[in-house]
Each structure stands twice: as structure tokens, then as C-alpha cells.
Amino acid sequence: MAKLDITSIHLTRVSIPLTMVHAGSMYVIEKTERTVIELRLENGVTGLGETWGTPDAYALAQRFAKDWLGKDALDRFALREVLGKSTYDNRFGRNGLAALAGLDLAAWDAVARSLKMSLAELIGARKRESIDVVSTLPAAILPRAVSRKELTDHLDVLANTKLVVQFALDQQRKSGFRSFKLKSAAYSPEWDWKLLNELREAMPQARIRFDPNANYGAATATELCRRLDSLGLEFFEDPTGELEGIARLKAAVKTPVATNMWVVKDEHLVPAIRRQAVDVVLGDLFMWGGIDAWRRMARVAHAYGLKPALHSVYETGIATVANLHLASALPEVEYPNDSGLHFLSSDVLAEPQEVKDGAMRLPAGPGLGVTLDLTKLEKVTLESAEIRG
């Protein structure tokens, strides 16, 4: 087909309040910041993308966008050269990979729309219309963002675990969730042990993930996970730090072990496979650097007996729907998708992306199958930039 040259890219950095306070071992937050991307082709078609909304990621997305003007959206290798010729040449780190991934998603969407195909079909095939999704559970239920000291004081009162259990049951009643991820503050093994036992008792059939974000030491994490082994959790996600620590923990437990922190690029796959360090590679589209990289990871991981799954934080409907298309297209993906969209107070899409019976449906139509609501976007905008030739 004819070239699909890129003529302009519009970037909008947004801030969207959450409907709850996210408390975990890494941060306590009440909002999410993202960068929304609109990439326009010479044929008049516009594709949508999204990436992190930090100032650094936003600045790099602008820098890369300038280099993309006039290039063919079909030329995957030429577009990726903004990072360098190889991983070794990438001097932009994780922010660079995230910025590239957001632009990359917009290019895929624009190409799929031009070809009148859904994004899933362009990636591989549209095999599933409904994808189960996971509801995050904060480490504690708080009325506002608090200091670490205030959080640990709350966790010292073990009776407060019942608030998280009630929150989970509310999500189950509201949207039919069957899968949950508990974000641990990695402060009190006794809190986590008690809370996870109570969650299992309250929801005996639910799939439950436990994620301390690698902030427990290896010995503490191993002892705790051994105690939790009988609960039949879906997996322990980054229960401790570094690949070696995770590998030692995995050898000591029956429950599967997952990571989205220690296997985040191609070079990490071989040592993880050789060391039998994890069972699940919970890949983040933005940490891996785009659809090509994520698809390659999934196929390599699966070939060596690992299971790929889709990681997500508090993303708008754009990235959430992109993850649905990936899960639909790739048969290697068996686990439910992470998703935080249902905790955003508003979205930027015209079409509501709802969770029903614990699942989300793929939108119909070409590309992502969604449209940007400019009025909604304007209400949450922090800053914007138009990149033109």
C-alpha cells in the first residue's frame, strides 16, 4: 500500500483525580497524570496513543514526535530509531521507552484505521471480544493522601483490615469483579497475612494477586509467602527485590510468582528463564516500549514455559482499550488484564468503557475503536503541544 506519512502530532498532558486513595509501598496518591497523543497521517486519519504524564516523559514524547514528522507510520524500524540503533544506544531510560510506546500506539491505531482493521486484527487476530480485568485493592482505606507515618499508624491497627475487605466486596457487587490485586505497603507481614486470609474467606472463588512492589526483604517475603501458600492466590507479584531474591522465593513456595519490575526488557528474559526465577512476566506496554516489543516478549516467554500477562496502572481509556486488543490478539495471554480505569473520576473518551461481570468488551470499529472527547480532554488538561512540519 502507499506510504502513510506522519504530518502532525498533538500531545496533551492531563491530570485526573482518582475516586479512591491509592496506598501502596511505593506511593500514596489521589490522581493520575498521563499524556494523550493524537497522531495525524497525510491521508487525514488520526490515531490515538497514551503514555506516562510525568514532565520527563512528556518532554521526550515531544522530542521524539519532532523526529517522526514526515516518516512512514508503517516503517517500524525507522520510527524506533529515536531511541538509538540498539538497546545499548538508548540513553533515555524508562522514560524514553514509555514516550516511544505512546507514540507507537498512536501509529498502530492510525495504520489500523487506514486499513479499516481493528487493532487486534493488525496485531494478529481478534480472538476474544470480552477480557476479564483486575480490580486494584489499596493497602489500606484512607480518606486522603497521608504521610508514611500516618499510613503505618493505620496499619498498626489490625482491625482496619476489614475496611479493605469491604472495599473489595463493594467492587464485586458494583462491577462483578472476579479478580483482585492487593497493593501491599510492605510494612507489616501480619497485616498482609490477616488481610489476605480475610479476603479469601470473603471471596472464596476470587482470583487474588499480592503485590508488595519488591519492598519486602527476601527473608521476610519468603517467610510470609510460605504462610500464604495455602490460600491459593493467583500469584505473588514482585514479593521481593532483584531476580535472585525472587528466584529463591519461588523455589520455596507453590504459588506462582510474577514480576513487572525485574523482567522489563529482552536482555532480562534469558537470565529469568535460566534461573527459573518467575512463572509470569507481567509486562507493561510502556515499560517494554510498545506493541512490537510486548508481542515479542509474550511469544518468547511463552515458548520457554513462562506466562505473559498485561500490567497496567491508572491509565485512561486509550491505554486500557489497547491492552484489551493485545489480550484479544495474542493467545499467549491467559491471565486477566490489570486495569485501573474504573477508579478514574473521568475519562477522555467519548465512549464509556465499563466493567460488567468483571470483564470489558473490545470496542467495535477500526483501530482502537474509540474516539477522543475534546470537551472531557480540555477539562483535565495541564498543558499541550502541537508538533508540525
Specify the biggest β-sheet: 9 strands, mixed
Number of structural units classed as domains: 2
At the first level of CATH, what is the class of the largest domain? Alpha Beta
What would you call the shape?
globular
Write a short abstract of this structure.
The chain is an alpha/beta fold and 389 residues long. The chain has 14 helices and 13 strands.
Structure report:
This protein is α/β, with parallel strands linked by helices and 389 residues long. It folds into 2 domains: 6-116 and 373-388, 2-Layer Sandwich (Enolase-like, domain 1), CATH 3.30.390; 122-361, TIM Barrel. The chain has 14 helices and 13 strands. It has helices spanning 55-68, 76-80, 93-115, 119-123, 148-155, 161-175, 189-202, 218-228, 243-252, 266-275, 285-288, 291-303, 317-329, 374-379, and strands at 6-23, 28-41, 46-52, 130-137, 179-183, 207-211, 235-237, 257-259, 280-284, 307-311, 337-339, 359-361, 381-388. Strands 4, 5, 6, 7, 8, 9, 10, 11 and 12 form a 9-stranded mixed sheet that branches. Strands 3-2-1-13 form a 4-stranded antiparallel sheet. Strand 5 (179-183), helix 7 and strand 6 (207-211) form a beta-alpha-beta unit. Helix 1 packs across helix 3 (93-115), helix 7 runs parallel beside helix 8 (218-228) and helix 8 runs parallel beside helix 9. The longest helix has 23 residues, at 93-115. It starts with 5 loop residues before the first strand and ends with a strand.
